[in-house]
Amino acid sequence: MSTTAPPRVVVADDSAMMRAIVSTSLKHAGVEVVGSASNGDEALALCERERPDAMTLDLAMPGLDGMGVLRALRNPGASSVPVVVVSAFSPAHGARAVDALAEGAFDLVAKPAIGEGLDVFKQSLCEKVAAAVQSGRRRSLARPHTGGAVQSTLVRREPHRVRPGALGLPHENGSGVASVRRPVRTGVQKVVLIATSTGGPRALAQLMPALPSPLGMGTLIVQHMPAGFTGSLAARLDGASKLGVREAAAGDAINPSVALLAPGGLHLRLRPDGRAVLSEENAVGGLRPRADLLIEDAAKLYGDKLLLVVMTGMGNDGLRGASEVRRRGGRIFVESAESCTVYGMPRAIVEARLADEVLPLDQLPAAIAAEAC
What we know:
Elements: E1 8-12, H1 16-28, E2 32-37, H2 40-50, E3 54-57, H3 66-73, E4 83-87, H4 91-102, E5 107-110, H5 119-142, E6 171-172, E7 178-179, E8 191-196, H6 200-207, E9 218-223, H7 230-240, E10 244-247, E11 258-261, E12 267-270, E13 276-279, H8 291-302, E14 306-310, H9 319-327, E15 331-335, H10 345-351, E16 357-359, H11 364-372
Parallel strand pairs: 1-2, 1-3, 3-4, 4-5, 8-9, 8-14, 9-11, 10-11, 14-15, 15-16
Antiparallel strand pairs: 6-7, 12-13
Helix pairs in contact: 2-3, 4-7, 8-9
């Protein structure tokens, strides 16, 4: 973890063994563990006293549980601490973990199951804590914040101002990064493919209820989450959205009234006839599902009838796929830095000059609906 000062983290879990595993893993990664708590009240007290850069939080604890901690941290005057939830999986735990993300948790790490090795858990834990620390420090540097609506880093220009093939010159997006604006194709229904990672569940909770049903030719979603948790996310989004939202199953067809969510732990691919395939191929860059694989399949199938939307997330998943979308004439929207929890995946596409629109989250639903027809 390369930061100007060692990250300071509080570890909260009712299991002494898990506290030891998490603390030791973080210390080996250069983190200073400034306290450990066995329940929610201790965790809040430590956050108030130590003002850590981040906290790891179990949800099932005696007394004040993890959900209570998250709600308390949202109270006026409470410590602003990015929280990485470290949760076991079961149907009940999966739903609670998704609820925790909606309550403001930064990200989620699944506890290793009995018999599983710790290497993957430790790597995921350290990466997500590092991202949480960086996000918190970035917010601290940005204060004071004046509030109000988030503004786009790219001023949207009306389509009639851009001539097809007009010199191909890039323009600046407000962050000094050039993006290429291409003319909108109107009157053509599109498949919408949404890719997101860290901060995605909260972003999807804002985006999906604002989208109409039916939407274009259909919707596909890749959200980086551990295996077993995406079913709960789909159910939560389904209950709040006009579109139906469910985990994709093998053989599913694209449907204008349904958004298919890639199951955690599996790659979602498309057959030549457009039906879904769930693959246990090796993780790509540590990710399964990997958005790039689905994006490339969709770009080959739908060409200029594909709209790719890349939102908040660590890393550069989606970049390779975006190149294929551009090559085949599709459109690419990305979430702007101002509203991203982590400006990683969108940044990679903007810096590669592949983005047609760079918009804050609150402007994406209307833009997607207009583009998808």
